[in-house]
Amino acid sequence: SHHTSHQSIRYAHFSPAQFICICQSLYQAREGGQLVKLFHQHEEVLRSAGQEYWTDHVVLGYLLAQLHAHEFERLFETISRGTFDPKHYKELQELWYAGKYKENEIKRGKLLGAVEKYRIRRKFPPPLTIWDGQETVYSFKENSRKYLKNFYKANAYPNLDQKKEICRVTELEMVQVSNWFKNRRQRSKGANESKRTLKQSLLTSTMWHQSQQEDGSPYSSDRLSAPPCADLQHGSQIEVTERRQ
Question: DSSP 3-state assignment of 186?
Answer without folding.
Answer: helix
